[in-house]
Write a structure and sequence with these properties.
This protein is mainly α. It has a single domain, classed as Globins (Globin-like, Orthogonal Bundle). 70% of the residues lie in helices and 0% in strands. The protein binds protoporphyrin IX containing NI(II).
Length: 147
């Protein structure tokens, strides 16, 4: 189980309070699809996501980005039990969606980059390190039900 100091908890909360889910969610998911185009294969029902312009203008990508970011709220609120929080979601991604778990880290990195673009110097190296520790716990939890 990941341990958190009080300082780390407040840093994670402080970052999260500054995140606009409606902006960062769509941007981060679009970034994954553009930077790592093989991730398109999981979104066969999303229509045209085959060019940069198409990804950036796709309403389903935007909506799903918000869904994914909204799911992070549960981890912020349950920092002491992130694996349990994501157990069902991990099983869904393994059994039904069959998402290669390597992609979780790629998405996590894109989320951090999108947040960094907004927060600029507020995401200083120390805050970044703690935020990274938090998202790594999410990535591990999302991978926890893969066998
Ligand atoms: Ni993910 C559905 C959360 C990473 C592909 N995903 C969801 C849902 C949530 C979610 C919440 C909605 C579940 C439901 O309907 O019950 N996804 C997360 C989180 C992460 C993540 C928290 C990692 C931090 N998902 C990924 C990655 C991919 C991915 C990296 C592929 C590259 N997810 C999907 C797909 C769906 C999905 C595909 C179904 C979408 C749909 O609407 O059909």
């Amino acid at each position: 189980m990941v341990k958190w100091t009080d300082k780390e908890r407040s840093m994670v909360r402080a970052v999260w309070e500054k995140v606009n889910i409606d902006e960062v969610g769509p941007e981060a998911l679009a970034r994954v699809l553009i930077v790592y185009p093989w991730t398109e294969r999981y979104f066969g029902t999303f229509g045209d996501i085959f060019t940069v312009t198409a990804v950036l203008n796709n309403a389903k990508v935007a909506a799903h980005g918000k869904v994914v970011l909204t799911a992070l709220d549960a981890a912020v609120k349950n920092m002491d039990n992130i694996p349990e929080t994501y157990a069902a979601l991990s099983r869904l991604h393994y059994e039904k969606l069959q998402v290669d778990p390597d992609n979780f880290r790629l998405l996590a990195d894109c989320i951090t980059i999108s947040i960094a673009c907004k927060l600029k110097s507020d995401l200083d190296p120390q805050v970044h390190a703690t935020w990274h520790k938090f998202l790594s716990a999410v990535v591990d939890a999302m991978s926890s039900q893969y066998y």
